[in-house]
Amino acid sequence: MRVDIWSDVVCPWCYVGKARFEKALAEFAPDGPGGRIEVVYRSFELDPGWPAGQTMPVLELLAAKYRLPAAAAAEGQVAALARDEGLGFRTDREIGNTFDIHRVLQLGRAQGFQHRVLGAIYHAYFAEARPIFEPDTLAAVAADAGLDPGDVRQTLDSDDFADAVRADERRAGELGISGVPCFVFDGRPGVSGAQPVATFAGALREAAASPS
Question: What is this structure's pTM?
């Protein structure tokens, strides 16, 4: 079985959903992904039109959309859910264009480190509020997760893996995916959102029992 997960690194529900899915996966496949189950994280940009190189405090962005009291309440809600999953969550982080981060994640996939790199980026962003949109910070986080710093720099200084990001985004459109996280089981969309662990466990059992 293969599970493809479309997500964006600035999406708090993707952050929580990853933790919940991995708990379900650990119950379903105690030996971890691989063998019985291949898990691939796919690129999805929540705001592909965000200007490259520009960032904004998350609360400021949310306040512009929903007014400050509602923005703070929304952040507080997801922060509580994250902490319930044992995840760090800070509200003083900034948001920006994620295209280059997705290219680095594609590099991680090519080198067999995608899960570790994604986990490190999520932790740096949500738990530590590090400026992952700055190339030096992103390169340091990716290198700490196992990637060669020179390879990360080569990727950031070029268009490497841009086609892979765009291919994932086109595939999301073909599958009708308009929001993330979205979990696709053997090519069949199955679960959207940061669902409870039991929901993911049920989806894994159902997918395993269905003919490919």
Answer: 0.93
